[in-house]
UniProtKB/TrEMBL annotation:
Organism: Mesobacillus foraminis
Enzyme type, top EC level: oxidoreductase
Gene it is expressed from: cysH
EC number in record: 1.8.4.10
NCBIfam families (alphabetical): APS_reductase, cysH, PRK02090.1
Keywords noted in UniProt: Cytoplasm, Iron, Iron-sulfur, Metal-binding, Oxidoreductase
Single GO MF annotation: 4 iron, 4 sulfur cluster binding
Annotated binding of [4Fe-4S] cluster, by residue: C125, C126, C208, C211
Name the record gives this protein: Adenosine 5'-phosphosulfate reductase
Pathway in which this enzyme or protein is active: Sulfur metabolism; hydrogen sulfide biosynthesis; sulfite from sulfate
Cofactor: [4Fe-4S] cluster
Record Pfam families: PAPS_reduct (PF01507)
Protein's job: Catalyzes the formation of sulfite from adenosine 5'-phosphosulfate (APS) using thioredoxin as an electron donor.
Amino acid sequence: MADKLTYTTFDEYQAPEFPIDNPTKGALEVLKWAYTHYSEDELVYACSFGIEGMVLIDLISQVNERAHIAFLDTDKHFQETYDLIERVRERYPNLNIEIKKPKLTLEEQAKEFGDNLWETNPNKCCEIRKVIPLGEVLSGATAWISGLRREQSETRKHTQFTNKDNKFKSVKVCPLIHWTWKDVWRYAHKNNLPYNLLHDNGYPSIGCQTCTLPAFNADDLRSGRWTGTGKIECGLHQ
């Protein structure tokens, strides 16, 4: 187990190391370290409630059943996503699930930037409805947890268990970096986890309904996101 005093803040960042030759490929050990190292007020899990999110929620609940989970509600998510959040609340009643909305309503956004900003300027839409809200969530936190996996895309293949996050001036903890897609689903089925029903209909990666289609490339699980725009990330991990 890594020394819990390896670092405390973004400015003092120094990456610890964790063993991966165990059933969760280091994930549970990373979470135990994180919740020992940071207080509940210092650590936030930003969850999109995809299948990786369900695995992380289950692992987190084994370490800290009152953990702070933040969902960035863009007001454009699929109904299946909102339904899943309620199922999660029922299964893990002690978790602190925060629904974080942007300051601008969709109507206010349209008035200021025009209709369907997600089509005319998707980067600006993501900034307003995801990046800025997460920045607000993390304003009082020292670190945050993410479900990134190295296998997901070229932009994520060098992700470490802990990462210095220059965008949010925090430490980003990524427990699932060594997990494969099969590992994720094997764990989910073994533990009978609730999950977004869109996963059964060709949606391996699920974001806003305006910008998410079924994956058209079996080798790229994120190929259904922002199809045809050249955009590959919402901005949270860039």
